[in-house]
């Protein structure tokens, strides 16, 4: 089917509408618009090149998606027809790339596709959790509620990731500054001390000799280190995109000193929160587990969930299936077990998610507190070594001159 840009009058409101529709021909597009209560003024075939250009430029943030989802939920909940709700959200959306996506969704819906099928055409924007909730909402007639839950889920996940990035950013900045200071001292200060000793025919102390050797190496071969460093980054990134690299990275996250516990709680919170949202919207258990395995964004946890899903398929309870998995924290199957007994698995998963989200906040605070003294020790060692390398020669010269 082709895409057509059109300008038409909405007979129900009297407003002029500009949007896109999918049809086999211009005549078919006109018939479709008339059938939907529009009087076409102008219909032109869309230029796909512009659509492709818009698709690959710009960036759609979590905030953009949350605002879009909440607005759409509110409009549908207020009783507006789906296409009218989408057009209203389209007008209020400021992100150009998201506007292009919504434009295509409107055209797809007007062409006879369901909302979930229309969203599925843009997997780079709408993930499997989003699509599953939309599908369940359409099936149960609670699309507005499904959209509201999606927005809540996105907000909670974004808030957790923001806190973790904040905890990791501070030490990275401090270490980067320390490295900058070290390089400056080696390149600008240490050579001056070396030249002073050469002029006076004096022998440098051992610490300073080591520093001078390191400084000479950086000055002479520093240019060669740049392509080596760039190549190392490139090949590391390429490796981390392979199956083995992804598994290595995900395993390191779960077992990293200091940060390992934080990541484990993050994944448990994400697992439980996503599971609660899906079950609450009416997604079947096995489908929920399949989507959760992808949503946790860790292959090691995902395989544990997949193994649990196979056991559930064989008739075993979910709590018993998850119990004993190495990286599934015990509290999750315990809460699910209570939910299985009371018939409220989704509610218990929500409570488990809340517990881990609260613990994650405390974990991040404790990590920030623990990192500060470690950074201070590193800073003290580096500063002490540099001071010793620079001041010891000066004290040695003073003593020699006094003698």
Description:
- Helices cover 76% and strands 6% of the residues.
- The chain is built from 16 helices and 3 strands.
- The protein has helices at 26-35, 48-55, 62-77, 82-92, 96-110, 115-120, 128-140, 143-199, 206-240, 243-255, 260-281, 285-295, 299-313, 318-322, 331-342, 345-402, and strands spanning 2-10, 16-23, 38-45.
- A 3-stranded antiparallel beta sheet has the order 2-1-3.
- The protein starts with a strand and ends with a helix.
Outline:
This protein is mainly α. The chain has 16 helices and three strands.
Helix/strand layout:
Elements (H helix, E strand, L loop, with lengths): L1 E9 L5 E8 L2 H10 L2 E8 L2 H8 L6 H16 L4 H11 L3 H15 L4 H6 L7 H13 L2 H57 L6 H35 L2 H13 L4 H22 L3 H11 L3 H15 L4 H5 L8 H12 L2 H58 L1
Antiparallel strand pairs: 1-2, 1-3
Helix pairs in contact: 3-4, 3-8, 4-5, 7-8, 7-11, 8-9, 8-11, 8-16, 9-16, 10-11, 11-12, 11-16, 12-13, 15-16
